[in-house]
Design brief:
- By secondary structure, this protein is an alpha/beta fold.
- The chain folds into 2 domains: 7-49 and 84-267, Aldolase class I (TIM Barrel), CATH 3.20.20.70; 278-339, Alpha-Beta Complex (Type Iii Antifreeze Protein Isoform Hplc 12), CATH 3.90.1210.
- Helices cover 30% and strands 17% of the residues.
- The protein has 11 helices and 14 strands.
- The chain has an 8-stranded parallel sheet. Strands 1-2 form a two-stranded antiparallel sheet.
- Helix 6 links the parallel strand 6 (125-127) and strand 7 (148-151).
Length: 340
Amino acid sequence: MKIGKIDTDKKVFIIAELSANHNHSIQVAKDTIYAAKEAGADAIKLQTYTPEWITIDCKKQDFLIKGGTLWDGKNLFELYKEAMMPLEWHEELFNYARSIELEIFSSPFSKEAVDFLEQFNPPAYKIASFEITDYELIDYTASKGKPIIVSTGIAEFEDIQNAVDTAKKHNVDIALLKCTSAYPAPRSEVNLKTIKALKEIFNVTIGFSDHTLGISAPVAAVTMGARIVEKHFILDKNIDSPDKDFSLTPNEFKEMVSAIREVEEMMGVVDFKPKKGREFARSLYVVKDIKKGEKFTRENIRAIRPGFGLHPKYLPQILGKIACKDLEKGTALKWEYVGD
C-alpha cells in the first residue's frame, strides 16, 4: 500500500494520532504536529466529526458511558463535544503539516465528514474501530478512490469480512489494523498473533493500532508483520485530554520510532547464508606432518578451527587414502592433496 510518498512494503508507516490531544487550541494542535514530525512520525492523523454526526444529545441510560472506561459517567454527546477538533481548523492544519513534509489525513465519522475532507485531497482515509459496522460509511469512503485503513477493535470476523468486501468493490488499497478497543488496553488482551492471521486470511496490508501503555506492543507488532503502526500522540501529559492516559509524549514516541526502525532493519529477508564467521568454523587440517604416500588417519588429520580446509563431512571419505605430497602440520586440507 502506498500512502502519500510512503510505500508500506518498503517502510513501516508510523502514524501519530492527534485525536483529542489539542487542548482546544489550534496552536497546540500545530505544535503537536511539529513535535510528531520531529519524533519521527510519517503522518499525523486527525478525527473529523461533530457530535451530531455521531450521536444525539440524549441523557438516557443508553447514552451514558459505563463499563470501567476512562470516561465513565459522561454521555456520548458530551464526550464528543469535548474531544472534537473544530472543522474550521482543518485547512490550516493540513497546510501546516504539508509545509513540513508530514503526511496528514483523518478519520471521517460520517458521510458529511468525508465530503468535508475531500476538499483537502487526503492521501488516505481511516475508518475508526467503532465505525467498522457502518458498511454504508465504508462504502461511501472507499468510493472516493483513496487507500482505506480500517481498525478492527470491536469487530467480529463477519464485520471484518464485510468491511473488506465493501471496500474491494471500489478497487482501492485496503489495510486492516489489529486493534484492542480498551483505553488503555491490557497487554493480555492485545493478541498480536492475530496480525499474521489477518494477513493470511484477507491478503491485504496489515497494521496495528495501539492503545496499550508504553511502546512494547507496537514494536512487537512489527515483528509479527505489521506494516502500519498507529499510536496516540500528545505534546504534554499536562494537557487536559480524554486520551492523555494512553498517549505517548514526544520523547516516548521518538523512542518507539527508533525501536521500530531498529526492528525493521533486523527483520531483513529469509537468508540461510552466513554473512560472517564462517572462517571460525571447523574444517579438516593436517595436525601431524605427513609424508607423500602416507595414509590419512585420525592421528594426522582432524576437524579443527579455523574453517579454511575441507568440510568435516568429508573426513570418512579421506581416511585411508594417501597423501599426494608432503604435508606440514597446520596445512588446510584440499582435495588436490588426496590420492587413492
